[in-house]
Design brief:
Number of strands: 4
Shape: elongated
Number of helices: 1
Oligomer: single chain
Order of helices and strands: EEEEH
Structural class: mainly beta
Number of domains: 1
Helix content: under 10%
Radius of gyration: 20 Å
Largest sheet: 2 strands, antiparallel
Distance between the termini: 28 Å
Strand content: over 45%
């Protein structure tokens, strides 16, 4: 499984609910869940050249770590 080498961010799972009916706060009788679909949320990983322990190598790093300068890019 692909993950960030800096923060170990990896794919997470969750559910996406499908609802039917108007919400009570909008004047309806309440919304009901009529379906659940399981989904996977992937982090935004980029393959970049970094300098790690004095050597240059390619690595998968998430964009939040790249923006926060947690990794030094190799030229």
């Amino acid at each position: 499984m692909r993950s960030c080498i800096v923060c170990s961010k990896s794919p997470t799972t969750g559910k996406k609910y499908r609802r039917r009916g108007m919400e009570k706060r909008k004047g309806g009788a309440g919304s009901k869940v009529v379906g659940k679909s399981f989904r996977t949320v992937f982090p935004n990983l980029q393959r970049i050249k970094i300098s790690l322990n004095g050597s240059v190598q390619h690595a998968m790093v998430c964009t939040s770590c790249i923006q926060a300068n947690k990794v030094t890019k190799a030229a």
